[in-house]
Amino acid sequence: MSLTGNSAPGTGHVGTLTPDQTAALKKLWAAIYEIQEKGSVTIVPEPVPVPGTPAPAPVAASTGWGGGWFGSAAPAAPVEPVVEPPLTLTLEEIGLTAEGVHTALWNNVLGDNPDTLVLRFLRARKWHVGNGLTMILKAFKWRQEQNVEDVKTLGDDELEKEYPKFKNQLEMGKSFVRGVDKQGQPVVYLNVGLHRPADQDHRTLERLTLYLMETGRLLIQPPVETVALVFDLSQFGLGNMDYNFVKFLVHCFEAYYPESLGAIMVHKSPFVFWGVWKIIEPWLDPVVASKICFTSTDAELLDHIPAEHLPTTYEGGKDKYSYQYLPPVEGENDRMKDTATRAKLQGEWNTLAQQFEAKTRAWIVSADGEKDKLGQDRADIAKELRTQYFKLEPYIRARNQFHRKDAAGHSVVQEDGTAIWDYQN
């Protein structure tokens, strides 16, 4: 099975790039390095040809008004390339430092292939390198401003102290991840009927969203790069509607976590929702909107999610699963106190990151394709980086409920970073 369709050549994912896409990836990596070294970078876009207007069908020559100038076909207009002006970006105008770019880049890579991260922004900006660079730098700036790292380094109890009712959001099952769909995408269920805007501070809800975004990334297994969302509206009423939160969620997916959504199922929407939908729909990027489908019955969910993976709370589902929050376990983050081991593992990670960057710099100026010698060297180092990241992770990242063991002694996320779901069929 082709997971998320990413195996087809030219789809813009690692291992599928065309020569033009590889060239764009090289150009973006080069720009990321140059802006760190010089504080600014100028990107000269490649000319884009525009098809000329086709000539009208030839008319047979004749005497009088039927021939001559009026009866002859005019030649096709010449194809003139559209040349966009060079784009200059500076770290000062973005509000970042060179160190900030480097730190944000590698904090954001986690266990992914570094190319996977960069390609998300290129695809989101239709392979326009300048726009892709602008987008990724603004995302780095946003992560810095939002202090996204604290949802990884702080445990659930610490986040509760900082953001009141944080754990309550997890306990009530307002949103949870369970299993994968037919494309191998983790499925996020959002029970909208459990949400009331006034029940929690907006800061808590936004922090919870970032926590779920960063936690969910652990559940996505290569070559899959996306998640599926099920918006369960079976208990929806106007009192559940939170326009500010919807705007925040949409903006996160479009601007800061691009190319992360594979499918969106809006499930059992009542009549009252359609007035809300008319307000929300214009906010959506056309690419995101194209991934939305409306399911009116539980049986329709089975078109997307295997019965063995669908909870029995939905008719036709066979997974005897009922959401239960797994609370923190005493001592689960003790390895974060082991500074000596952390420093050793971090040093090994840093060495691999430096090797990847050195190979990337050589690859940028070579004629090497994605699958040739330097390209393969980079891919091999990326695999080592993933292995090393999960050795390091317990020393730099707090445990979450997907690391914790349930009553049967099973945890979803394993020590090596693989995610194994224990379906209860």
From TrEMBL:
Sequence ranges assigned to domain CRAL-TRIO in this UniProt record: 163-322
The protein's matches in CDD domains, at most eight in alphabetical order, are given as: SEC14
Q: Which domain of life is it from?
A: Eukaryota
Q: What is this protein called?
A: CRAL-TRIO domain-containing protein
A Pfam family hit: CRAL_TRIO_N
Family matches, as InterPro entries: CRAL-TRIO_dom, CRAL-TRIO_dom_sf, CRAL/TRIO_N_dom, CRAL/TRIO_N_dom_sf, PITP/CRAL-TRIO
